[in-house]
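#dry-run=false #mode=assembly
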Amino acid sequence: MKRYVLALTFVVAAAPVHAQTAPAADPHAGHAMDQQVPAAAPAGPRNPNLPPTGDAPGDKNAVALEQLKSSPRKSEWIDIKGSNGTPIKSFVVYPERRDKASVVVVIQEIFGLSDWIRGVTDQLAKEGFIAIAPDFMSGMGPNKGGSAELGEQGSQREIGKLTDDDKVRILNDVRAYALTIPSGNGKLGTVGFCWGGGTSFLYALKQPALNAAVSYYGPMPADPAAYANAKAPVLGLYGGNDTRVNPNIEVAKTGMAQAKAVYEPHIFEGAGHGFLRQQNGNANAPGNMKATEQAWPLTIEFLKKHTK
Amino acid sequence: MANGSGPLAAAFVLAASPAFAQTRPMADPHAGHLMMEQAPAAAATADNPAIPPANAASAERLRNSPRHGEWVDIKMPSGAPLRSFVVYPERKDKGPVVLVIHDIGGMSDWGRAVGDQLAKDGFIAIVPDFLSGKGPNGGGTEELGQGVGPAIRTLTPDDVAARLNAALAYGKSLPSSNRKTGVIGFCWGGSASFHYATAQPELDASVVYYGTPPMKTVDGAQVVDPAALEKIKAPVIGFYGGSDARVSSTVEPTAAEMTKLGKSYESHVMEGAGHGFLKGQASSEANGKAAADAWPLTIAFLKKHTQ
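#status=ok
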């Protein structure tokens, strides 16, 4: 019996590793061969080892919703105690594993805690992390609601009201909760996208006990002095066609080097801002899928390495 | 059209002639219009992704935009915030900024979707709510609700220019900006765009969609104000509905004054189109055609002058 479980675990664990290596080459070959296929059509069946895309034709979140619906993993909505008295509504997904796991906090885009973000959260649990996506809009919506009550456009409108102190407070509250989870190994990383990418990087500058931060195309401080207290290693993943965010990568390099903190920026040529959510891309961002195929394995590898 | 008589037809003829005389591109859209007259409506209701959306398609466009759009509070000289929606293009290098001036209805999804389209065309688009601070509790268009009409009339051209100056300075401060700035406005905002060309010497291009030029009153009649036009530095391009005599009747005198003053003014009167044809592109075949013709000319003009 024990042997059986072990063998199963091995297979599950092996799948992503395999996916990270072999298919990395395949999609490229596939692209070249599929050149005649109309651009709008998906290149083929989706790669289950990448997060869902958020730009599906028709209902853009259809792929994420399908993943959530068919996920074998345990997920739940919880209210995390907020130190300012406002509960932080959060979506949590648990990995299927027998040992303790590190926690990854998933930080939303400017559009709030969307279905797409929940799909990414599920994907991280699939990779073995306890994944928590807090709703940063908690209490900011109508009737003290959050992202669901505001909608994506409403969240986009209201999110600017959150100060850096608010963001760090919420993450500290979520972290405090995360470290109490019995199946947690006591390590915690953050992954954020767009607004959340900036927030993930910010948290690395403000929380010395953080183990790892991944920023997907998040803006960074323009002042090198802002990096002075950085401790946690940061992985930065950027689209080449993201003229708004990328100018400060050099500043971040300098600032992180001065703080003797690890900063690994990767710029994916031909990809736009938000490439992981918009894997199908467009004329101005043709490289989004390719960037996704490269960035996601880097993300998992980085998080595993620093939260073991 | 040939059977037309009275002021409307007269206005159209007047309006069309300077455009034809002034610019070559003008001839082509018109030829196209005439030839296409018999053809069935070119799917007037389908969303054409190459131009800004019809009003009804705006929310869907914004929802599916791959570009980064964010709300920012731009500080005005008074210290009060100018609530603005900013959309960034997907590009590697620095881009020019275009300020978008909404119509008389105030800030809207449509105005924001125009900004999104400009970003798709490579510009950093800043779409301010010019009614910022005019609503209850310091709010703007949204908070004003039915009060937008009366409130917008309290904004003088100079007020609008002051707000645009704040947006222009913000745009120039962005690390991804090439420090060139164009302005585009619609209806009320079209007039504001024209006026801004007279007020801001640093402006690089002004696009006027069915807005009037600066006017003054002489002997009880509204006439184009040459003293205002004389201050213009930036090239101006105007798009007008052929069936919008209220506005398009100003085109010929404007063209005459601009020529006299040695200013760059290109006008396009879109035959059969009504006022607000870009937002109202789905309401008639002529409007749809006008929108499809006007937008590429708009982008070419902005690109040329803000590179």
